[in-house]
């Protein structure tokens, strides 16, 4: 395509001012959303997988525990009525942020389906048993990396990083790699979940759910 949109004026795709896509793949009405946001998320996640979305479990995690707000992409590893779970080094920047301020926001974007899900809530560490179970499913190299990497800390160069990994690999040459205590999971317990479905003319569908103290969810439609 030589950097130009097909059927459009010859404007470089790198020009964000003139880049336009009209969304028209689906709709999200109240009867489709239902009353349970977790059930709707489960359905959307399955549809993202069936549509071949690359890394459908990838989500942006935003934290605000330090002097600045920070975000990064992490992978969702499980979810349910009690929340959305990801794993990390407990000494990483995200972990330090969450220790100071447990508020967290998650964002999923599935462009192939013209969909986005925003989740706001509070994060807490999962139990050691839950972290152990997931850690045991990771490939050997990933388990070793949990030991060899001081996540978010500086390192002299790539060679030093690989040297550290090799030392830990040799240390665990017998194949037994226990979970380090500085590595485990977080569960973000949702207080608000918003589902966004792209629509034509920028009149997008936005259905939000708010979690009440009695455990129920309230649903409302937001203007785009």
Write structural notes for this entry.
It is a single chain. Strands 1, 2, 3, 4, 5, 6, 7, 8 and 9 form a 9-stranded antiparallel beta sheet that branches. The chain has 6 helices and 9 strands, in the order H-H-E-E-E-E-H-E-E-H-H-H-E-E-E. The protein folds into 2 domains: 146 residues, Pnp Oxidase, Chain A (Roll), CATH 2.30.110; 42 residues, no CATH class. Helix 5 crosses helix 6. The N terminus is likely disordered. It is globular, with a radius of gyration of 21 Å. By secondary structure, it is of the alpha+beta class.
Number of domains: 2
Shape: globular
Give the amount of beta strand, in percent.
25-35%
What is the correct CATH architecture of the largest domain?
Roll
Terminal CA distance: 32 Å
In the CATH hierarchy, the third-tier topology of the largest domain is known as: Pnp Oxidase, Chain A
For the secondary structure, the number of strands is: 9
Question: What's the pLDDT, averaged over the residues?
Answer: 91
CATH superfamily of the largest domain: Electron Transport, Fmn-binding Protein, Chain A
The helix content, as a percent range, equals 25-40%
